[in-house]
Amino acid sequence: MIKRMIFPLLLGLAGCAILMSLGLWQVQRLDWKETMLAEIDARIAAAPVAVPATPDPQADRFLPVTATGTIGAERLRILVSQKKIGAGYRIISPFMTEDGRTILLDRGILPIQAELPAPPAGPVTVQGNLHWPDEVDDYTPEPDLGRDIWFARDVPRMADALGTEPVLLVLRASEPASPAITPLPVSRAGIPNDHLSYAVTWFSLAVIWFGMTVFLLWRIRQRTV
């Protein structure tokens, strides 16, 4: 009887060890992700600085900045949807700064049926965060240029379309403001943090595997008595 139980016992112990190690790994990943998110929150909320001369998509991601300039009349419309609000368009416009640069300005969301008002005629002071969103994948449709609708923020491509630097400033506040357009500031909301649920899943599977092992050993013992 003991010989017949050795292999199931070893298999059960090995399976439990593997599943528990995967659960512990997810706990470690959870701690790393929460530390990273806290750093992102602190970076987003820091005091704004001038737009760097040569922003780096990695080092300057989420960098809070401020600038004064004029908003161009051209714009791109990015189709988006918000929970409990519905569909709308992110409005991306060229922003000509006082020092002669032209960058992209994500002004926020406009309701899908609303008319886009003309941009302010004079200088505008904006505050927000630099961002290079990773929204384009193999399933993202091509922009529908006939209907003037884009489906993702592709910074290099938007810069080519509007003739700007490949730098996107996501608006948090402006003076004067555009009442028809609601800013959608940068936040960590789009960064997934599912490690706790993954850890619970692996630990649950380990408990189930242990229970199945105990049941199998009990069945083997019953058949041999």
From TrEMBL:
It is a multi-pass membrane protein. It comes from the Bacteria. Pfam families: SURF1. Keywords: Cell membrane, Membrane, Transmembrane, Transmembrane helix. GO terms for cellular component: plasma membrane. The chain crosses the membrane at residues 196-218. Coiled coil: none annotated. CDD domains: SURF1. It is found in: Cell membrane; Membrane. PANTHER family: SURFEIT LOCUS PROTEIN, SURFEIT LOCUS PROTEIN 1. Belongs to the SURF1 family. This is SURF1-like protein.
